[in-house]
Amino acid sequence: MSAKSARTRVGIVGAGPSGLMLSHMLHLAGIDSVVIEQRSRAYIENRIRAGVLEHDVAELLRSTGLGARLNALGLPHEGTQLLFAGQPHRIDFAALTGKHVTVYGQHEVVRDLVAARLEAGGELVFGAEDVAVEGVQSGSPAITYTSAGVAHRLDCDVIAGCDGFHGICRPAMPAGHLKIFDRIYPFGWLGILADAAPSAEELIYANHENGFALLSMRSPTVSRMYLQCAPDEDVALWSDDRIWSELEVRLAHEGFALHTGKITQKSVTPMRSFVAEPMQCGRLFLVGDAAHIVPPTGAKGMNSAIGDVVVLSRALERFFAGRGSEGLEEYSKICLRRIWKTQRFSWWMTTMLHRMDHGDFDRRVQLAELDYVTGSVAGSTTLAENYVGLPLT
Fold this sequence. Notes:
The protein folds into 2 domains: 4-75 and 102-181 and 273-351, 3-Layer(bba) Sandwich (FAD/NAD(P)-binding domain); 183-272 and 358-388, D-Amino Acid Oxidase, Chain A, domain 2. It has 12 helices and 21 strands. It has helices at 17-28, 41-46, 55-63, 68-73, 93-97, 106-119, 240-251, 301-320, 326-329, 331-353, 360-375, 377-388; strands at 4-7, 10-13, 33-36, 52-53, 75-77, 79-84, 87-92, 101-103, 123-125, 129-134, 142-147, 150-155, 158-161, 179-195, 204-207, 213-219, 222-229, 262-277, 280-281, 284-286, 292-293. The strands form 4 sheets. An 8-stranded mixed sheet has the order 7-6-15-16-17-14-18-21. Helix 1 runs parallel beside helix 8 and helix 11 (360-375) crosses helix 12 (377-388). It starts with a strand and ends in a 5-residue tail after the last helix. The model has no long low-confidence stretch (mean pLDDT 96).
């Protein structure tokens, strides 16, 4: 049986934040696209991931018509706390940079984008099976997939691989085309969601002899918290009482009281840094986690993906307006400049805040670095500038 054929200018594999945002921005520029997603709509809209938006990313969402729920539900944060040796130290983003971040969950961004695309008549295919890309080194690439038992072929001018680290687009590039840069950390994060009011107004990053801890939040009534653990930790060994007890120990400081409640989700996330270069091959362009991932310590995952989207969408606007393909040819080079700075920041925050088990000398250096960062305007500004976000292009 022959496949049902269709055509679009930009075929997008993956309906995460990067794929949906790319489709949204292309629509605003008058460029048609189709988004192909293997998961269901319910799955992507309820998948709990990153929750901190850089200043410029939040402004981009607002400027493209996605600000209503963000403005109503987002929690602006003008600083953060670094806790070490039992003492909290505040990094004042607003005073140091004039900018702030916004706590707003990735699943909320996805919900906003899905609603915007459907309202605008955008074509989103959920639950696609047997997704594959072909002809990426030709001028006529295509995406093939099966939906509701029917085979489909989507001919495209360009394909954007926005399908994450485990997606099909990066492996579709020819053998030997990519150079992989990878670092596996010897620890992970035990993360929880809890029906408990946040115990602080801002995030607390805690360096403790027992290991790192992070106090975060998703709303005024839901807390998101993490504990450093083994990368293969058995979450079944962590009862609710054990988790709350360890959070109390690692976050303890004068005047602090930990709010507890029903834990609704527990999971362990291994920590990894990864970059694939180049981020393009012919008419196939990798975006977001398909090309790079960071440990979550610096809150850069979704923000980095949106940075890629801005670069690619502008290059595609020029290309389809007949102003040349230079932007597409330079896509990888432009993105990687920002990505490697983001990798550096995420690695730095990770190694500065986690128990590394490298001996007493390295532990003393780690504490000295924290003391410098929090006690120096230059050191605090470095952290603040990176945390609120480097320019998107």
